[in-house]
């Protein structure tokens, strides 16, 4: 009896987990509603009660973004480096499709970035042109700066491959800790919101606008303390900067539009 009960619990718990958790992406079509979920870096789909892993590789970081502005979103991901939890390995793009009443992830691009230790991947449009921009945060030295540090690398996606756009050493003299992108000021294109830290451990959020040859600062927030992380959320087609804090104050959303 105990063995049967244990097996039943193991069968029920995953189903309850999928039913109660907020999906990463929801797709509706004639075959029903399809949801994508992330479990420990693996991407699963759920249609009604059918659950299936759609990407075999474990992902280190990813973003869901409409790369080609066709109304259908893609998964832009970094695969996980074997034996290391600090950096990703390859940038891989997946097209999301519905086939035979199942959601599938079809690989459309792959490039190895393991030698420059990528720790973040994101997608944005920082200059309002037809091509999506891909941010890859790396941890390395540069030609003019010998210290190993987090660096902001930007690429342009032309529909077939990544092209170098701006491989920067830094945004400012403060260290890059976290980054996200959004149109928080109603400019019609994305700006970079950067969580920065100085040598004394003080943190601030700086907003940077891409000006062709680099980035210029358009606003800095230094009044908030204990900032842990920043992300972008979209509500009613408006981008908000979500700030997560340590301590009693958990989070807040900002928009300057």
List keywords for this structure.
257 residues; mainly beta; four-stranded antiparallel beta sheet; 1 helix; 19 strands; disordered N terminus
How are strands sequenced across the largest beta sheet?
1-2-3-4
Oligomerization: single chain
List the helices and strands in order: HEEEEEEEEEEEEEEEEEEE
> How many strands appear in the DSSP assignment?
19
Classify the helix fraction into a percent range: under 10%
Helix/strand/pairing category? mainly beta
Span from first to last CA? Answer: 61 Å
Q: Provide mean pLDDT, rounded.
A: 88
Determine Rg (CA atoms, Å): 20 Å
Write the layout of secondary structure elements.
Layout: H1 2-20, E1 25-29, E2 32-39, E3 42-47, E4 50-53, E5 59-65, E6 74-80, E7 88-99, E8 102-112, E9 118-124, E10 133-140, E11 149-157, E12 162-167, E13 175-182, E14 191-197, E15 203-210, E16 215-221, E17 227-235, E18 238-245, E19 251-254
Antiparallel strand pairs: 1-2, 2-3, 3-4, 5-6, 6-7, 7-8, 9-10, 10-11, 11-12, 13-14, 14-15, 15-16, 17-18, 18-19
Task: Describe the 3D structure.
The chain has 257 residues and is mainly β. Helices cover 7% and strands 55% of the residues. It has one helix spanning 2-20; strands spanning 25-29, 32-39, 42-47, 50-53, 59-65, 74-80, 88-99, 102-112, 118-124, 133-140, 149-157, 162-167, 175-182, 191-197, 203-210, 215-221, 227-235, 238-245, 251-254. The protein has a four-stranded antiparallel sheet, with no helix packed on it. Strands 5-6-7-8 form a four-stranded antiparallel sheet, with no helix packed on it. The protein has a four-stranded antiparallel sheet with strand order 9-10-11-12, with no helix packed on it. The chain is globular and about 55 Å long. It starts with a helix and ends with a strand. The model is unreliable at 1-14 (pLDDT under 50).
């Amino acid at each position: 009896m105990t063995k049967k009960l244990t097996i039943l619990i193991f069968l029920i718990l995953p189903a309850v987990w999928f039913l109660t958790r907020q999906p990463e992406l929801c797709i509706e079509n004639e075959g029903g509603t399809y949801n994508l979920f992330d479990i420990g870096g693996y991407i699963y789909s759920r249609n009604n009660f059918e659950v299936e892993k759609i990407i075999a590789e474990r992902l280190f970081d990813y973003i869901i973004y409409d790369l080609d502005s066709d109304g259908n979103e893609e998964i832009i991901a970094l695969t996980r480096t074997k034996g290391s939890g600090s950096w990703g390995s390859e940038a891989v793009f997946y097209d999301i499709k519905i086939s035979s009443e199942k959601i599938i992830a079809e690989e459309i691009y792959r490039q190895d970035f393991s030698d420059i230790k990528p720790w973040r991947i994101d997608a944005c449009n920082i200059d309002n042109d037809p091509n999506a921009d891909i941010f890859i945060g790396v941890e390395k030295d540069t030609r003019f700066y010998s210290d190993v540090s987090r660096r902001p690398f930007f690429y342009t996606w032309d529909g077939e491959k990544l092209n170098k756009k701006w491989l920067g050493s830094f945004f400012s003299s403060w260290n890059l800790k976290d980054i996200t992108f959004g149109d928080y000021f109603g400019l019609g294109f994305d700006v970079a919101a950067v969580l920065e830290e100085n040598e004394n451990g003080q943190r601030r959020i700086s907003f940077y606008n891409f000006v062709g040859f680099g980035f210029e600062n358009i606003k800095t927030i230094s009044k908030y303390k204990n900032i842990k992380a920043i992300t972008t959320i979209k509500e009613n087609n408006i981008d908000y900067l979500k700030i997560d804090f340590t301590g009693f104050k958990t989070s807040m959303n900002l928009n300057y539009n």
